[in-house]
Amino acid sequence: MTTATGFLDRYLEGGSWFHRADARVKLVMALGFIFATTSIPPGKWYAFAAMFALVWCAAGVSRIGLVRVFLRSLVAIPFILIALPTVFTKPGAPIFELDLALFALTGTQEGLDFFFSVLLKSWSSVTAAVVLTGTTPPLRLLDALRSLRVPAVLVAIVMLMYRYLFVLVEEAQRLMRARAARSAAIGSKSGGSLVWRAKSAGGMAGSLFIRTLDRSERIYMAMVARGYDGALRQASDVPLKRGAIGALGVVLCVFAAVAIAARTVL
């Protein structure tokens, strides 16, 4: 496995409680956390602080490294920035004005509350997903999805995407190396102008799509020839232990209590 694709399978081994816990329990906990966090109304900072503290405590207990969890959680930034215009577009009490010469933007208290609420919701939810995927091998997560009666078609799509994502990344790397080899120039950086790079990237994307489509057809025909009928076989589910069920119930009750308190007390 290359360095570029190795990150998909990193930080899965460990001896923490989170590593040993049943994948079904961890998946339901993560989904419950995300649901509770996203249901908190904007501006309920005590509730957000409680959920934020809970997820980072879980990250610490998982022993996969707080710095690594933080760096991986930054993937939420592009989605958070989408909510930035609401600072100026949401009606409310004006608190500052941004003069841009041609026009001025007025920020409101309600807009700021909404933006920072979206920031905390997104960041906390992504952090929970990072802890889940960092302590659970992908195939165990797929087994958990099947056990929770997720539609078989969706599970099959996710499974095949995971299995062949490495192949697609390596195929893209080969195309990029070929482009670099054909555009080398003495005394200058290979690749030409920005326009040339854009055209080349478009061509590579089209070529990768065609190769991917052709490869998927070959894989599907090979699977059908070996008896694939759309159903995913798995061993019988291991019954959950009472301790795991009890721990799951307690954690979900804590999440529900914070979400309810955010709407009634905090």
Written account of the structure:
It is a single chain. Residues 1-7 have low confidence and may be disordered. The chain has helices spanning 3-6, 17-20, 23-38, 45-62, 66-73, 77-82, 86-89, 109-135, 138-147, 152-182, 194-225, 242-264; strands at 94-99, 104-108. The protein has a two-stranded antiparallel sheet with strand order 1-2. The radius of gyration is 24 Å and the shape is flat. It is mainly α and 266 residues long. The chain contains twelve helices and two strands. Helix 3 (23-38) runs parallel beside helix 12 (242-264), helix 4 runs parallel beside helix 8 and helix 4 (45-62) runs antiparallel to helix 12. It folds into two domains: 8-149 and 238-264, no CATH class; 152-225, no CATH class.
Characteristic terms for this protein:
mainly alpha, 266 residues, 69% helix, 12 helices, single chain
Which overall shape is indicated by the principal axes computed on the Cα atoms?
flat
Q: What number of structural domains do the residues give?
A: 2
- Please give the share of residues in helix: 55-70%
Total number of beta strands: 2
Number of helices: 12
Compute the CA-based radius of gyration.
24 Å
Major sheet: order of its strands? 1-2
Structural class: mainly alpha
Strand proportion: under 5%
Distance between the amino and carboxyl termini: 49 Å
Oligomer: single chain
Average pLDDT confidence is 83
- Give me the strand/helix succession: HHHHHHHEEHHHHH
Low-pLDDT runs: 1-7
Largest sheet: 2 strands, antiparallel
